[in-house]
Write a structure and sequence with these properties.
The complex is a heterodimer of chains A (300) and B (438). With 300 residues, chain A is α/β, with parallel strands linked by helices. Chain A folds into 2 domains: 216 residues, Rossmann fold; 61 residues, Alpha-Beta Plaits, CATH 3.30.70. Helix content of chain A is 36%, strand content 27%. In chain A, strand 1 and strand 2 form a beta hairpin. In chain A, helix 3 packs across helix 4. Chain A is elongated, with a radius of gyration of 24 Å. With 438 residues, chain B is mainly alpha-helical. Chain B folds into 2 domains: 101 residues, D-Maltodextrin-Binding Protein, domain 2, CATH 3.40.190; 240 residues, no CATH class. Chain B is elongated and about 95 Å long. Classes of the chains: A alpha/beta (300), B mainly alpha (438). At the A-B interface, strand 6 and helix 3 of A face helix 1 and helix 7 of B.
Chain lengths: 300, 438
């Protein structure tokens, strides 16, 4: 485990922002930290980055209780980003890299490496305020990864990025992940979760309401719905054998019980009746649906 | 390099490299020079040009008055008032001065009439009144057949020269108080100015970091306390740099002054009514005694304690400003209510010096104010020039240093909560609660 959250509680006055939350982040995975606004995600991230400390419980990074060396092992890109507008790009990166524990020499080398990679060598002496928003985002990304953190925490990393930069940063994240960096990815964009994450935790009202592997969760939430598309008409007694959930645009969606689904009863029936099938699929819930369902279920 | 050092270095360098800092630092002594030139120019300035006055001396009291300070007195007793009035209208004179006959030698008041349609400048009016009063005095002395030299021996200049009983041999001249007031006043003013200016600079800088959201990135690398302390120390170092630069540059300007302007000793004389003209030799003696008095001050003690009080006061106030800045949102106007409780003690301390200290530097209120840590950084340096008891200085120093640590600690607790809190209007009561957050 790269990160282990154990029974963590955080209170602000009377408000409990994080309420006995536990989960583990496996090493080398892309981990989705999900939840509606105000769920306690930021409070949790701030504790992981040691900006604040938990009132109860413990957090371990790579087996070690969080300590003063933790910040140097974590790269954090907050959703609300910012840089010193009047500083020169090169000096700014040097400053933040040194604050992350790099020596001046090492920081220089790392920054040069990223400048080459992004082909922005002529930006060194530009002031941050002279850069476009997209360019500033690139700099922000470099500041997050320049010290080669073990764990990268990205809060809505693609918000405000154009498609070209989104692809660029996505590729960088993948490369870093392949090289062994564990990544916590906090977002509202569920299609990104399905695309990028292998594990997730869903937080609502300060509590852990859903946690596990993406594939397993999708399986867990499936409702045994099957969609059939056919050029033939279905036999008249079809409705007596199967529960038809809906009939969208000429297709039929059937809800089976668990056993029937496992025994492929529907398929067998269709083949026996010589129905010509053009398409047959199990409808798995989207993460969006799972998210909304779980949040609504736990709202009370 | 430690993180704190890195922060201090950045805070210092970004400010010192700013154009506004360089211009401000260089221009202030130039401004001082211009100020002196203007003062010199103003003292030389004769208000409103020459005034020609016809003197109608009806009783032969004033006789001939020599021209003086832009007023020409022209004897015209051979003409009537009506004639002179028409000559004024023709423009021969600016006005007619009608000096009536003195009723008796015992008369204590004399009203002189001035006929003109132009206003007489108040300054000229004073000069003329003084001249005529002198002439009437001479007239009375002559009429009473008094001996002029005997009368002059009646006038005696009296000044109190304080002598210490306990510290015998340490002569305090009549300049001690004046020099003390000047040194103390200047120090109190510098303190007030620096604390206000650099304290508020820290506050704005904290607000800026919060509004442009860099702070969240910073917080994931350094402790909030490190960032706050680094900022306070960095800005304080900028303040010291500026003061040192000003001292050096002002010294240079003062040194160059005599070469740039010729200061007219006549122009420096007090206006009439403030005493007789100063004899140049006496003036030289006075200047010498003034420098002697300046030299007698315990400068290492004054400068040394000034520095400690400066640092103490600066840390107390700038940490409060930092805490306030962290609690404020993007709206500076909204935060004014939070700034006020911090600025009030500074202003109050300055008023105590200005209204009480100058009249009585050792009064009970001054002693209290020079101990109370929110006031003492401004009040104690003022009192230093009046040799307060050593135990008072020592106690005040201990209190101010201890308070500085306390305030920085307290501000750190407020700062770490406030800096990450957005979109909420904060009250002082709420800030108080943050102190006790874990």
């Amino acid at each position: 485990m790269i990160l282990s959250i154990q029974n963590v509680v955080k209170q602000y006055g009377k408000h409990t922002a994080v309420n006995h939350v536990s989960f583990d982040v496996p090493k080398g995975c892309v981990f989705g930290l999900l939840g509606p606004n105000g769920a306690g995600k930021t409070s949790l991230i701030r504790m992981i980055t040691t900006i604040t400390g938990p009132d109860e419980g413990a957090i371990y990074l790579d087996g070690e209780l969080l300590n003063e060396r933790t910040p140097e092992q974590i790269g954090y890109m907050p959703e609300e980003r910012g840089l010193y507008k009047k500083m020169k790009v090169g000096e700014h990166l040097l400053y933040l890299a040194q604050l992350k524990g790099l020596s001046e020499k090492a920081a220089n080398e790392e920054i040069k490496h990223w400048f080459d990679k992004f082909e922005i060598n002529d930006w060194w002496n530009k002031k941050v305020e002279e850069l476009s928003k997209g360019m500033q985002q690139k700099i922000q990304f470099i500041t997050t990864v320049v010290h080669k953190p073990k764990l990268l925490i990205l809060d809505e990393p693609f918000s405000g990025l154009d498609p070209i930069n989104t692809t660029l940063i996505k590729d960088e994240i993948r490369q870093l992940n392949e090289a062994g960096t564990s990544i916590i990815f906090s977002t509202h964009r569920m299609e990104q979760v399905e695309e990028m994450c292998d594990h997730i935790v869903l937080i609502n009202q300060g509590k852990n309401v859903l946690y596990g592997e993406v594939k397993a969760i999708k399986n867990e939430f499936k409702e045994n719905l099957f969609r059939i598309e056919t050029s033939d008409t279905l036999p008249g007694d079809f409705d007596k054998h199967f529960q038809v959930a809906s009939r969208p645009d000429g297709a039929v969606v059937v809800k089976l019980d668990e056993a029937a689904s496992r025994n492929n009863e529907l398929l067998r029936y269709l083949i026996q009746h010589n129905i010509h099938i053009t398409r047959y699929e199990e409808i798995l819930p989207t993460f969006n649906e799972i998210f909304i369902r779980r949040v609504e279920e736990t709202q009370n | 390099m430690s993180k704190l050092n890195l922060i201090i270095k950045r805070e210092y360098l970004t400010r010192v490299r700013k154009k506004s800092f360089i211009i401000g630092t260089l221009l202030a002594p130039v401004g001082l020079l211009v100020y002196f030139l203007v003062i010199v120019g103003l003292t030389k300035y004769e208000g409103g040009g020459e005034v020609k006055v016809a003197v109608l001396d009806e009783g032969g009291v004033v006789g001939i008055i020599p021209d003086d300070r832009g007023v020409r007195y022209i004897p015209a007793s051979d003409k009537t008032l009506e004639q002179l009035k028409s000559e004024v209208l023709e423009g021969t004179y600016n006005g007619v001065l009608q000096v009536p006959t003195l009723g008796s030698l015992k008369q204590k008041e004399l009203t002189v009439f001035y006929y003109s349609d132009d206003k007489l400048a108040p300054e000229k009016r004073q000069y003329i009144e003084k001249r005529i009063a002198d002439k009437v005095r001479d007239f009375k002395i002559d009429s009473l057949r008094l001996d002029r030299t005997s009368i002059e021996t009646l006038d005696t200049d009296v000044s109190i020269d304080p002598e210490s009983i306990a510290k015998e041999g340490e002569d305090e001249s009549k300049y001690t108080i004046g020099v003390g007031l000047a040194i103390g006043g200047i120090m109190a003013f510098i303190m007030f100015f620096m604390v206000m200016m650099y304290g508020q600079m820290v506050m704005r800088s904290v607000m800026e970091e919060k509004t442009n959201r860099i702070v969240e990135v910073m917080m994931s690398s350094v402790r909030p306390f490190q960032l706050m302390l680094g900022k306070i120390i960095g800005a304080g170092a900028v303040g010291l740099t500026q003061v040192l630069a000003w001292i050096v540059l002002s010294g240079a300007v003062m040194f160059l002054m005599p070469f740039l302007v010729d200061v007219d000793p006549q122009a420096m004389q007090p206006p009439p009514g403030a005493g007789a003209a100063i004899d140049p030799e006496v003036a030289q003696g006075e200047a010498f005694r003034l420098f002697q008095e300046l030299g007698k001050q315990n400068w290492p003690m004054i400068v040394g304690s000034f520095l400690i009080f400066f640092l103490g006061g600066y840390f107390i106030y700038s940490s409060m400003f930092a805490a306030i800045g962290s609690a404020m949102g993007d709206d500076y106007g909204e935060g004014q209510a939070l700034v006020l409780p911090v600025t009030i003690p500074i202003i109050l301390a300055f008023y105590i010096v200005a209204f009480v200290g100058i009249r009585n530097p050792d009064s009970g209120l001054m002693v209290f104010a020079s101990m109370f840590p929110l006031f003492s950084p401004i009040v104690m340096p003022f009192r230093m020039a009046f040799s307060p008891p050593v135990w008072q200085v020592a106690l005040s120093l201990i209190l101010v240093v201890a308070s500085a640590f306390f305030f920085v600690w307290m501000a750190g607790r407020i700062y770490r909560v406030g800096i990450l809190l957005y979109g909420k209007k904060v009250t002082l009561k709420e800030i108080g609660k943050w102190l006790f957050y874990r």
